[in-house]
Write a structure and sequence with these properties.
The complex is a heterotrimer. By secondary structure, chain B is α/β, with parallel strands linked by helices. Helices cover 19% and strands 29% of the residues of chain B. A seven-stranded mixed sheet of chain B has the order 10-9-8-7-11-12-15, with helices on both faces. The longest helix of chain B is centred in the middle third of the chain and has 13 residues. Chain B is globular. Chain C is an alpha+beta fold. Chain C contains four helices and eight strands, in the order H-H-E-E-E-E-E-E-E-E-H-H. The termini of chain C are far apart. The chains are: A alpha+beta, B alpha/beta, C alpha+beta. The interface between A and B is large, with 54 and 48 residues.
Chain lengths: 377, 284, 153
């Protein structure tokens, strides 16, 4: 993850080049993961060849709605984001922390070693790069560092993709997190598919990115190709599905902690925690202790948790946030307001997953707008 | 601070989530449901009054417990634990020689250094006396560094009073006001009965410059801080120790958030001016 | 009697009271003293007086069968004990026991009630002071009854 060179030179890579990229990365010992179709959604999983990618698929997203439909071309990245994010690899849902063994009264603790297998993420969107940077801040840039996250993150090779279209739920532009990947990638691709051909404008962002690119069949991009790539990004930026209201969300939300809108959203929120599961920046975890029957061998692991669960804030026989209203308020004010106090940025990247995957279609941008509008009356 | 004892572990320093193993050397019952454990730390254990450790009862779980011993006695780590659930219960049942897991110390502690030259009020409620005890040791241990000192302590009944012998000795031998009250008295109790805020009038202090350290149930800290405010103290000189659900103690799990702060790393000790407004927001 | 008006004028309860009213109140007052363990008043007894505490501590107690005397509040110097003289049936609702030597001013309830009836301005001054203490006691009692130290809510 070394710093990128001053000006990124653009190259053209054909689909054969992309195919070769996967094998080059695997030859270097990296596990290649990327988008693939499964269970009627585009998820992130191991991919070996281009055939594993969602060729010719696109997604139709709206509040509480996600459908895959066929495109009329063979684009490999012609969709936005699905229910999963790269946190499933960097900050996995279950992580063993340590195990212990007892002999008499003596106990020995053995830490779970950090992962050594490197991974290559194929098709990281701009909003996802921002989300990874946000989780980096939380888990590696404070006084304490999570060694498991650090190891996986250090070893990750990121192949970014500039989105060819925005989904109905996307709002990265208003969160200043896309649609163009500006930094934080080893390679960045913009898919160009038209009557002239099917290939990618590619840029290397790091030394390792340049090394890998050197092993692929590529040539300097033409001015037309660079123009076409710019046009793709402009088109995406202009077709965002929605926008977060442009104002100081920190001030707006923190002066409205008792707003009636929280009661209104609580009436429909199921506290199902889907939003926190799909959100690429949500990082909350809980711990679990397991042991054998003789209590001689025990282990502790960490698993994803959600501020929407009733016992998340359990204290002295009850929960601090027992109402669904208080839990929804916690999630939204943390994501958009107090995240700034804690980490110096918003916690939201405008990916829209929480909107699409909310079973009752709650839209975080609409919730903000409702509170903001009520003040203007 | 790697523990080089026989029960050593690997990678402990690298991963803040991995505990070291320590053994109980002494166990004392302070009240029906309160036990104080002592652990001998051969290489010493350094902490600031008000900090806490995460203690593991192997096979049961882990819980945040404030350190309740004297930081100067660095070879003896002391914890006062109340049995309120499976983990704390398991810890209170540990016997000398048995092992537990330890991570820490964590958090921002009491402003003992800042209190130098000023009047000090130590305001404890219930089990809140335990996290304050390290500060009491430091203040009374270097008595001349501080102005007037008052220890005000309220608890439920006379049977719940913690550290009775120490309280008696502090009252008898040291230049400090020590007042204790209970919510309900018994026939043998000859002391104060009433809400702990009634004790403020017994403390001698300059409200403009005094420093107060308040610890106890959240409701008690709220009305305690209100009473100190009413006596003329500015909110910036009143310190509270907050408590929230904790799973990691290092700002990773998210559970201890209270508005913008993580109680584990931005606290647990906070000035009242930082908390005053969010303390009254229900279910924050 | 001399010096009593000085004590009454100086007691926190009567702070700011007009000099004429101090004289009226003094007319109903006397010095009293209780040894440790003595009762100032007993539950059910006629509540003819109230006490301005000057020294020592008084425990307000209720006796419960099998539990002995339960102290529900202690009052000490600068405080006032006894409000039942104000309201019918004018009977003490608690026992009031001196936990150590107690020196106080006892103010005759009937005497003061009559003077308040005769001069409503004096009555209003008394009421203001009594109500302030009663409100504070009510608030304190509520905080006590919250049982905040009991973790198993």
């Amino acid at each position: 993850m070394d710093k990128p060179a001053a000006a990124l030179q653009s190259f053209y890579l054909g689909t054969d080049g992309l195919e070769r990229l996967l094998s080059v990365l695997r030859r270097r010992g990296l596990r290649t993961v990327g988008p693939t179709v499964r269970d009627q959604a585009i998820v992130y999983d191991d991919i070996e060849t281009l055939a594993d990618l969602p060729r010719g698929w696109t997604d139709e997203q709206a509040p509480g709605h996600y459908r895959l439909t066929r495109r009329d071309d063979d684009a490999l990245f012609g969709y936005a984001v699905g229910p999963q994010s790269w946190k499933k690899f960097l900050h996995p849902p279950i992580q063993k922390l340590w195990s212990s063994k007892r002999e008499g009264e003596a106990v020995t603790v053995t830490a779970e070693p950090a992962a050594e297998q490197r991974m290559a993420f194929i098709g990281v969107r701009a909003c996802e790069l921002r989300a990874i940077a946000i989780q980096d801040k939380v888990l590696t840039e404070g006084a304490n560092k999570d060694p498991h996250y650090v190891a996986r993150r250090k070893g990750a090779f990121l192949v970014a993709v500039n989105c060819g279209q925005a989904a109905g739920t996307c709002f990265c532009v208003s969160m200043n997190a896309g649609p163009k990947a500006e930094s934080g990638f080893d390679l960045s691709l913009t898919e160009l598919i038209d009557e002239r051909g099917h290939g990618f404008l590619v840029e290397a962002g790091t030394e390792e990115g340049r090394e890998v690119l050197a092993e692929l069949p590529h040539r300097t991009a033409s001015q037309d190709e660079r123009g076409a790539a710019d046009a793709v990004v402009e088109h995406t930026a202009a077709s965002m599905g929605r926008a977060m209201p442009a104002e100081d969300l920190h001030a707006l939300l923190l002066r409205n902690l008792e707003h009636p809108r929280w009661d209104a959203v609580a009436n429909i929120c199921l506290s199902c925690s889907n939003c926190t599961m799909v959100c690429p920046t949500c990082f909350c975890t809980s711990v679990e202790e397991t042991s054998d029957l003789a209590n001689e061998e025990t282990a502790r692991s960490r698993r994803w948790d959600s501020c929407f669960t009733i016992d998340y804030s359990y204290l002295h026989g009850g929960s601090v946030r027992s109402s669904s209203k208080s839990r929804y308020r916690q999630w939204m004010t943390h994501k958009l307001a107090t995240w700034h106090d804690q980490f110096g940025s918003s916690g939201c990247v405008g990916c829209g997953r929480c909107i699409a995957w909310c079973p009752v279609g709650i839209d975080i941008t609409a919730e903000v707008r409702a509170i903001s509008d009520s003040e203007k009356k | 601070m790697l523990d080089l004892a026989a029960n050593s572990n690997s990678n402990a320093a690298a991963d803040p989530m991995v505990p070291r193993v320590v053994r109980v050397t002494k166990r004392r019952k302070d009240a029906p449901d309160v036990v104080t454990l002592e652990m001998e730390m051969k290489d010493g254990f350094d902490f600031v009054p008000g900090q806490f450790n995460m203690l593991t009862a192997f096979g049961v779980g882990e819980v945040a417990i404030s350190i309740s011993g004297d930081p100067v006695k660095r070879n003896r780590l002391v914890h006062t634990i109340r049995d309120v659930g499976p983990v704390s219960g398991a810890l209170t049942r540990l016997q000398p020689g048995q092992s537990l897991g330890l991570r820490g110390p964590f958090g921002i502690g009491w402003p003992v250094a800042e209190a130098a030259g000023r009047d000090v009020i130590i305001f404890a409620g219930g089990l809140g006396l335990a996290p304050l005890r390290p500060a009491i040791y430091r203040v009374l241990g270097e008595r001349k560094r501080f102005g007037k000192v008052a220890l005000l302590y309220g608890t439920r009944t006379p049977g719940d009073i913690l550290f009775q012998r120490e309280l008696e000795s502090w009252r008898r031998t040291l230049d400090a006001t020590v007042e204790i009250t209970v919510d309900r008295g018994t026939p043998e109790w000859h002391g104060h009965v009433g809400v702990v805020t009634n004790l403020v009038k017994y403390a001698e202090f300059d409200p403009k410059t005094a420093l107060a350290m308040v610890c106890g149930p959240e409701v008690m800290m709220r009305f305690g801080a209100a009473a100190l405010r009413a006596a003329g103290m500015p909110d910036t000189n009143i310190y509270l120790s907050m408590e929230r659900n904790m799973k990691c103690a290092v700002g990773f799990c998210g559970h201890c958030q209270f508005g913008p702060v993580f109680v584990c790393k931005d606290g647990p000790v906070f000035t009242f001016d930082r908390l005053r407004e969010i303390l009254t927001v229900k279910e924050l | 009697m001399e010096g009593l008006d000085r004590i009454i004028r100086g007691h926190a309860f009567f702070a700011g009271l007009d000099e004429d009213f101090v004289k009226l109140v003094t007319g109903c007052s006397k010095n009293v003293r209780f040894e440790a363990g003595q009762y100032l008043f007993r539950e059910g007894g006629p509540a003819d007086e109230f006490f301005l505490l000057r020294e020592g501590r008084v425990a307000l107690e209720l006796a419960a069968p099998g539990k002995g005397a339960i102290s529900i509040l202690t009052a000490s110097e600068g405080e006032v004990v006894g409000f039942s003289w104000l309201v019918p049936p004018n009977r003490w609702v608690y026992d009031g026991r001196a936990t150590g030597l107690v020196r106080a001013i006892s103010i005759d309830g009937a005497c003061l009630r009559n003077k308040c009836e005769a001069d409503h301005d004096l009555g209003y001054e008394m009421m203001k002071r009594v109500v302030a203490i009663v409100i504070k006691r009510l608030h304190d009692t509520r905080l006590q009854s919250l049982d905040v130290y009991n973790v198993h809510a």
